[in-house]
């Protein structure tokens, strides 16, 4: 079983149904936390469906905000969600189509763990940032702060021990504050700071939660989509039994992300 086979991120609508209800709440909190002055130039690397890009456009009063992503499908969704407030470009995080020091803030949302060489991407983000500018991102706390995914993989592993190889808690070391702080510090960024962002979102019924798992976007949905129908139904039942479903069928689940920021040193700074 190869992990990359299930790391599919391409369909914007499917991602929004899966994680969008949380990711957009976190994006707003992240932009407010950064506190970048009005009139800044922003670059959102790995912009996905545009949750962070649109939050910057709505809340930060930028002079310009550009979203970059490798997925044409995600960029289509991002343009539709953001409208004329931002520009978008298809690009790899390790080779950004901007000149040195062009941006006041280079940011990224929930993408770092899926990059094959995150240190290279961080170096490229710093290159695109002006001296004194911000380089920042946030990632899901897969280790302890993703209640839904934790319960999902526990249920899946009970039915199929091989599923443990796909569990993000084991695969993604950059989901913890110590690892993020070390990565930002090693990149030579100043004033490195890490903070949690916690949000909660509700579901009217378990079916609303389960349906996005059938679309194959990301490790857990990719695993579900690959199962035979009887195995899929057993997993569905096991997951539902593990969740705090209320008598009326509704439920509320929380998530935590870790946010990290640092500033690009100015020339001659010590």
UniProtKB/TrEMBL annotation:
Keyword annotations: Methyltransferase, Transferase
Keyword Transferase attributed: yes
InterPro entries found in the cross-reference section: Methyltransf_11 (IPR013216), SAM-dependent_MTases_sf (IPR029063)
GO MF term list: methyltransferase activity
BP-aspect Gene Ontology terms: methylation
Annotated Methyltransferase type domain residues: 43-137
Any one Pfam family match given in the protein's UniProt record, by short name: Methyltransf_11
Record-given protein name: Methyltransferase
Species of the source: Streptomyces cirratus
């Amino acid at each position: 079983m190869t992990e990359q086979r299930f790391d599919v991120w391409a369909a914007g609508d499917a991602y929004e149904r899966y994680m969008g209800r949380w990711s957009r709440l976190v994006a707003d909190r992240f932009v407010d936390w950064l506190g970048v002055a009005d009139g800044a130039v922003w670059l959102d690397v790995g912009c996905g469906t545009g949750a962070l890009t649109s939050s910057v456009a709505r809340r930060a009063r930028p002079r310009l905000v550009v979203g970059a992503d490798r997925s044409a499908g995600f960029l289509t969704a991002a343009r539709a969600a953001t409208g004329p407030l931002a520009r978008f470009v298809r690009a790899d995080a390790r080779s950004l189509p901007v000149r040195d020091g062009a941006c006041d803030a280079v940011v990224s949302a929930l993408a770092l763990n899926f990059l094959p060489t995150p240190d290279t991407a961080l170096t490229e983000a710093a290159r695109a940032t002006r001296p004194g500018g911000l380089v920042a991102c946030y990632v899901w706390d897969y280790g302890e702060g993703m209640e839904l995914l934790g319960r999902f993989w526990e249920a899946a592993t009970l039915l199929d021990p091989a599923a443990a190889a796909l569990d993000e808690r084991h695969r993604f070391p950059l989901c913890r504050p110590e690892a993020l702080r070390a990565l930002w510090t090693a990149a030579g960024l100043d004033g490195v700071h890490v903070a949690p962002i916690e949000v909660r979102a509700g579901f009217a019924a378990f079916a609303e939660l389960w349906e996005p798992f059938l679309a194959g976007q990301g490790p857990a949905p990719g695993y579900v989509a690959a199962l035979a129908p009887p195995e899929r139904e057993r997993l569905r039942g096991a997951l539902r039994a593990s969740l705090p479903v209320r008598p009326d069928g509704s439920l509320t689940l929380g998530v935590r992300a870790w946010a990290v920021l640092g500033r690009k040193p100015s020339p001659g700074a010590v």
